[in-house]
C-alpha cells in the first residue's frame, strides 16, 4: 500500500525571503530550516503539497503567479510529486501543478471514481477535497493510517481529520531531526 506525506506549504515548508506576509514573486520563498532533514525520513512516501491560495481570490496575486510559485517550490523541494491548491474562497476550484503541467477542476466536474457520484467536499481547507482528489488521482490503495498530514494551522488539522489522515504540527515535524 502507498503511504502519502501531505504537506501544507506556507508556514510549514516555505516562508518568504523578504519577510513579507505572503509570497509576492515565485523567487521570494525559501525552505524553512529543518524541512530538508524532516522530509528525509519519508523517502518511501509519495510527497504531495496541499495549499489554500486565497491571495488569488483576494486580488493579491494572479493565478499565473500562484502556479509559478508552486512550480518554484517544487524546484526547492524536489521530493514534491505534485501540488494541489485552491485559489478561491468558496472551495469550488482546484489546481494540480506538477513540474510538467498544470490542470484545473471545478467541484461539479469531479466524480468520485468508486461511487461515480459528484464529489461535493470543499476543496478549500479545512475541507478535505484536495486530499481526496490527490488520493483518487494516485489511483492506488493508500495506507491512510501510515500516511501523514503536516501543517501549521487549525484548518490543516481539520482537513487531516476530515480525510482520516493522522496529523502532526509543522514545528514538531521539523523538530524531529534537531
TrEMBL record:
Top-level division of the source organism's lineage: Bacteria
Keywords: Hydrolase
Positions in coiled-coil regions: none
Pfam families recorded: PNK3P
One Gene Ontology biological process: carbohydrate metabolic process
GO MF annotation: an example: phosphatase activity
Transmembrane parts of this sequence: none
PANTHER family: D-GLYCERO-BETA-D-MANNO-HEPTOSE-1,7-BISPHOSPHATE 7-PHOSPHATASE (PTHR42891)
Protein name: HAD-IIIA family hydrolase
Amino acid at each position: 500500500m502507498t503511504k502519502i506525506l501531505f504537506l501544507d506549504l506556507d508556514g510549514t515548508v516555505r516562508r518568504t525571503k523578504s519577510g513579507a506576509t505572503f509570497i509576492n514573486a515565485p523567487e521570494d520563498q525559501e525552505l524553512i530550516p529543518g524541512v530538508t532533514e524532516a522530509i528525509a525520513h519519508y523517502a518511501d512516501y509519495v510527497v504531495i503539497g496541499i495549499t489554500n491560495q486565497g491571495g488569488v481570490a483576494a486580488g493579491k496575486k494572479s493565478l499565473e503567479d500562484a502556479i509559478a510559485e508552486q512550480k518554484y517550490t517544487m524546484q526547492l523541494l524536489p521530493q514534491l510529486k505534485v501540488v494541489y491548491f485552491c485559489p478561491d474562497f468558496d472551495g469550488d476550484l482546484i489546481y494540480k501543478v506538477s513540474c510538467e503541467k498544470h490542470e484545473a477542476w471545478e467541484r461539479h466536474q469531479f466524480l468520485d471514481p468508486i461511487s461515480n457520484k459528484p464529489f461535493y467536499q470543499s476543496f478549500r481547507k479545512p475541507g478535505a477535497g484536495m486530499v481526496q482528489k490527490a488520493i483518487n488521482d494516485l489511483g492506488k490503495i493508500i495506507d491512510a493510517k501510515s500516511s501523514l498530514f503536516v501543517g501549521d494551522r487549525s484548518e490543516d488539522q481539520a482537513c487531516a481529520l476530515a480525510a482520516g489522515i493522522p496529523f502532526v504540527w509543522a514545528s514538531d515535524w521539523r523538530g524531529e531531526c534537531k
